[in-house]
Design goal:
Layout (H helix, E strand, L loop, with lengths): L11 H11 L3 H4 L6 H5 L18 H14 L18 H15 L2 H20 L23 E6 L19 E4 L25 E3 L4 E7 L22 E8 L2 E8 L11 E2 L4 E4 L11 E6 L9 E2 L6 E4 L1 H13 L15 E3 L5 E3 L5 E4 L23 H22 L2 H25 L4 H7 L1 H18 L6 H30 L7 H7 L3
Length: 521
């Protein structure tokens, strides 16, 4: 990383921007869990005030808008942020993003997944005995290339907390968001920039970062036809369409926000480094087309811990350093062009094929010509590898039913909650059972997908029983209990799958030395 203005020389605007960037509100969101006992026990009703901390969920939308304002009106002497040269958002687009927040609160699938991410961080902390892997302690087991060809721009992501994707929840701590920009830093063409086809990265091939075996895919989530802060109202997963690949025991890559219908692999497929697995899209929680990429320690996204990674075969540019150098030369003609650049960015890891740590604001290009040609066809399959088990989806359905019960029950009666749950069962059952049938998918896959509506059906039955019997419990109590039961089921199944996949991983680890020899490096 480059040296930036020190605290003593930075302007108040620059210091405020730095403070906002380092502020991590998701730790405060975790305090909202303290409100749960207030709904379970009348004597602890005062704890319900902690539900206000849930509002810190809004911070990811507030922070970019504040940064945009300060970046636009910053004093010329302010320290340059590494991403200031990238032009992805305007005030209009952030306003649209705020408007999209409203329908998100009415999407129980997304709400339940967000809550599972929060609790999943606790599961990951327990799994790692309170210490999440970091760049000093984690020993990377596989040699990774960039999951794209050509030159892409790192919008968010770093091994440093200051420029990380999001430090909390821990499942996305070391994730990266990639787009393609022109030399001026724009991610889309000037003509009609909000149509997805006008974004430079849209529909570009996404590649396997290393050899491995596919353990989970999603290819049926819809995407909005426009970016500019818009996302699809009926998304079923914050990842949209995605592929999860196992590269070693407890080391998985996750490639997210793919174009619907573009996924070229299935669970059980062997994939080779550089093989095409899908195309860059705009599905899930996405303000514009981009690739979300991360390495994680678990096949289940919600309870995983993101892992710090470095890449090999990468050429990097740091546009903010180049601009600082040009500005310095203009201010002092005695300086040679190029002064102010940082030769230590990126960081190469000694002895590991010149592995590079990339960071937000850089333009990165894959230059390893030893890779095999990318392929669009899946390799031979392994049997009995899918992670999307019926029980896991069942737990998801129960947790979604709990979220509907909890939040709708705040303002509505028992009968309204039961009606909405029953409607969810009907809609979910039709989609997950009839949809795959129309698409010609097998009976086994249809039955697996019915786990969600069956979980919702159990939640509906539970709420109906609570409403029609002498059982004394509030709607929030029943909803919270259902969510925790569903989450517990999901965690149990996911942990079983993680251990099973680790045991069954059949020597497919690409250790650095073997990987180097195989590619002739």
């Amino acid at each position: 990383m480059t040296d930036r203005a020190t605290t003593e020389t930075a302007t108040p605007s620059a210091r405020l921007r730095s403070a906002l960037r380092s502020f991590e509100p998701m730790y405060l969101v975790a305090l909202s869990v303290l409100a749960v006992p207030g709904y379970l026990f009348d004597s602890l009703a005062f704890l319900q005030v902690f539900q206000l901390f849930f509002l810190f969920f809004l911070w990811p939308l507030v922070a970019p808008l504040v940064g945009l304002v300060f970046g636009r009106y910053a004093d010329e002497t302010d320290a340059t942020e590494p991403t200031d040269w990238i032009h992805m958002g305007t005030g209009r687009e952030y306003a649209i993003g705020y408007a999209m927040l409203v329908p998100t609160f009415f999407n129980p699938l997304v709400m339940a997944q967000d809550l599972r991410q929060l609790l999943g961080s606790a599961v990951a902390l327990v799994r790692h005995r309170g210490s999440i892997p970091d760049r000093e302690t984690y020993e990377q087991r596989v040699s990774y290339r960039l999951p794209v060809d050509g030159t892409w721009t790192v919008v968010t992501g770093s091994l440093e907390r200051e420029y990380s994707h999001s430090w909390f929840p821990v499942n996305q701590r070391y994730a990266y968001d990639f787009v393609v920009t022109d030399d001026a830093g724009h991610s889309a063409t000037a003509e009609g920039p909000t149509a997805v086809e006008n974004y430079y990265c849209y529909d570009e091939p996404i590649l396997a970062p290393a050899d491995g075996i596919v353990v989970d895919v999603s290819d049926g989530d819809p995407e909005a036809s426009h970016g500019g802060g818009l996302s699809h109202l009926l998304k079923r997963d914050i990842r949209g369409n995605y592929v999860v690949i196992q590269h070693a025991p407890d080391e998985y890559s996750s490639l997210v926000h793919l174009v619907p219908g573009s996924v070229a692999v299935e669970p059980g497929d062997r994939v080779e480094r550089g093989q095409r697995i899908g195309r860059c899209g705009h599905s899930g929680n996405s303000s514009e087309p981009h690739l979300h990429f991360q390495i994680q320690d678990h096949p289940n996204f919600e309870i995983a811990a993101s892992l710090p990674i470095t890449f090999d075969g990468v050429e990097t540019e740091s546009p903010w350093l180049e601009r600082e150098a040009v500005d310095s030369t203009a201010a002092d003609p005695t300086l040679e062009e190029g002064d102010g650049t940082d030769d230590q960015s990126p960081t190469a890891v000694d002895g590991e094929r010149d592995r590079v740590a990339i960071t937000a604001g850089q333009r990165v290009t894959h230059v390893d010509t030893c890779d095999d040609e990318s392929s669009s066809a899946p390799s031979s399959q392994q049997s009995d590898r899918p992670i999307s088990s019926w029980l896991e989806r069942f737990g998801t359905g129960v947790s979604v039913g709990g979220v509907i019960t909890f939040f709708v029950g705040i303002v509505a009666s028992w009968s309204t909650v039961v009606t909405l749950l029953a409607a969810s069962v009907a809609i979910g059952g039709s989609y997950w059972l009839v949809g795959p049938l129309v698409r010609g998918e097998g009976v086994g896959l249809r039955l697996t997908r019915t786990g969600v509506p069956i979980g919702l059906a159990l939640a509906t039955t539970t709420v109906w029983y609570a409403a029609s019997s002498t059982f004394v419990a509030g709607r929030q109590t029943v909803g919270g209990a259902l969510f925790l039961v569903g989450f517990g089921c999901l965690v149990a199944v996911a942990e079983y799958d993680r251990r099973r996949l680790g045991r069954e991983f059949d020597g497919f680890e690409a250790v650095p030395d073997a990987d180097s020899q195989r590619h002739g490096s």
